[in-house]
Design brief:
There is one protein chain. The protein is of the alpha/beta class and 483 residues long. It has 23 helices and nine strands. Among the domains are: 85 residues, Serine Threonine Protein Phosphatase 5, Tetratricopeptide repeat; 207 residues, Vaccinia Virus protein VP39 (Rossmann fold), CATH 3.40.50. The strands form two sheets. The protein has a seven-stranded mixed beta sheet. The protein starts with 9 loop residues before the first helix and ends with a strand.
Length: 483
């Protein structure tokens, strides 16, 4: 049983509450904090404790409300400003976080966490060079802080300074060998660069040093699978599942290895996490893979769009899983619009918004968006979206309900390899692949389209991109709602 400080010593109680919050013991911290508030006058320290408790308990709006009041009462207190910057970063408000962190730095230039928070906020605003300067200063002031090192490495990578990112990580691991976040970032940066051999080396070093969590093992499995070492990847994924049994990313990748039954679509948190992390490098990576889907969909629209009369308005487009807006960019010269995009990833939507092709952008799962949407659409597109769905009957039915009679539904799929008779996915017409994506066969697409009341205009076999040096076979499909 914990030894409690004397109730006559509120400072000791405050320290104890802070320890409990840091340890995640919010149930024990809450009554002690209430006791302290009855014993002492309001103060910035008490406000910070209350806010940290609310943040730990997943109550960000309450935390922000209390911080706003505390900052209004003590506007020159840098701790409050820094804490609000941290909260605003968690709430995906980098502009607000940057303003608070900058104020905290002005109020107390010797506060390294404020400079680090400012750096992370600037990184979120796309100002990588400025972020590097702030985070480098925070690291200089506190060299052994692994979180500052992680931020500096991410900022250097975003600024194109790979050597600086490597240096920040290597020095951080040397100073903080048990920091699992640094190990994860060391592996992740190599995965993002396509250096899967280097990623495996980093993952194996982390495991030898006993610095392991579900993410280390999951990334190890991803790198192994990317090199075709699927049996080794399955072992890594199963070990990751033991450490993170409720982690949706881990469970989906374990299912892709065949060690768990696969669901009929990738979990929403999995897709969101993948693309939020991928957004800044998404387009450069796809260009390197010879990505063809936007051009293929544009060509399909040119072939299948009916000829418009001079007095007709251009047909509106609903872009499901719009990502960074590549479909709109590829087809912006066609007589189409307005464009409306839907995507799960906040960061992908931010990249799409910067292109200024879309009249509307909505953060939503496509099934929820189709269910909520009331407008009829002449064109619905989905480029590289259904590789995260196995069963297509439900999305096809909802698309049918949203299409105008005669409206077009154009999308891409990865094509499933021919299955053996003993393949459990043989009857389904789709299967979950080793990379966590689904592939479909032509017959399944045809029968599912007919069942949904859609007619087939075209199903063409195409190469979608290259992966690990090999072409990725796919299907470019054009369906229509009958008039």
């Amino acid at each position: 049983m914990d030894a409690l400080p004397s109730l006559a010593d509120p400072d000791a109680l405050i320290r104890r509450v802070a320890v409990l919050i840091d340890a995640g013991r919010t149930g024990a911290a809450r009554p002690l904090l209430a006791a302290v508030r009855r014993m002492t006058a309001p103060s910035p320290d008490l406000s910070c404790l209350s806010v940290r408790l609310a943040m730990r308990e997943g109550r960000p709006l309450e935390a922000l409300e209390e911080l706003d009041a505390a900052v209004a009462g003590s506007p020159s207190e840098p701790t409050l400003r820094a804490l609000r910057a941290e909260l605003r970063l968690q709430m995906d408000d980098p502009a607000g976080a940057a303003a608070d962190a900058a104020e905290a730095v002005i109020l107390d230039p010797a506060r390294p966490n404020a400079k680090a928070l400012l750096g992370m906020a600037l990184l979120g605003l796309g100002r990588a060079a400025d972020a590097v300067a702030c985070l480098a200063e925070a690291v200089r002031m506190t060299p052994a802080n692994p979180f500052f090192r992680q931020g500096l490495a991410e900022a250097c990578e975003a600024d194109g300074d790979r050597a600086g990112a490597e240096e920040a990580i290597e020095e951080g691991i040397e100073l903080c060998p048990g920091a699992v976040g640094l190990r994860n970032l060391a592996i992740l940066l190599r995965v993002r660069r396509g250096d899967f051999t280097g990623a495996i080396t980093q993952a194996e070093a982390a495991q030898r040093d006993g610095v392991v969590d579900a993410c280390v093992l999951g990334l190890h499995g991803h790198a192994l699978s990317s090199l075709g070492r699927h049996e080794d990847a399955a072992v890594a994924y199963r070990e990751a599942l033991k450490l993170g049994p409720d982690d949706v990313y881990v469970r989906h990748m374990v299912a892709s290895s065949g060690a768990l039954p696969s669901g009929d679509r990738a979990p929403e948190p999995y897709v969101r996490a993948v693309f939020d992390g991928y957004a800044p490098r998404f387009e450069a990576h796809l260009v390197a893979l010879g990505y063809r889907v936007p051009g293929l969909i544009r060509a399909a629209l040119v072939r299948h769009l009916p000829t418009a009369t001079p007095d007709e308005a251009p047909p509106a487009v609903l872009d499901l899983g719009c990502g960074t807006g590549l479909l709109a960019a590829a087809s912006c010269d066609l007589p189409l619009g307005p464009w409306v995009g839907v995507d799960l990833s906040t960061r992908m939507l931010a990249e799409a918004a910067a292109k200024e092709f879309y009249a509307e952008l909505h953060e939503a799962d496509l099934m929820a968006a189709l269910a909520a949407e009331q407008r009829p659409w002449p064109i619905i597109l989905a480029g590289d979206v259904f590789c995260y769905f196995g069963a297509l009957d439900a999305p096809f039915a909802r698309v049918h309900d949203r299409l105008l009679p005669g409206g077009l539904f154009v999308f891409s799929l990865e094509e499933r390899e021919p299955a053996s008779d003993g393949d459990p996915g043989q009857r389904a017409g789709w299967r979950l692949g080793r990379q966590g994506r689904y592939a479909h066969d032509t017959h399944y697409v045809e029968t599912t389209a007919h069942s949904a009341g859609l007619e087939i205009r075209a199903i063409d076999r195409e190469t979608l991109r290259r992966e690990a040096g090999a072409p990725v076979p796919g299907l470019l499909v054009v369906l229509a709602r009958p008039r």
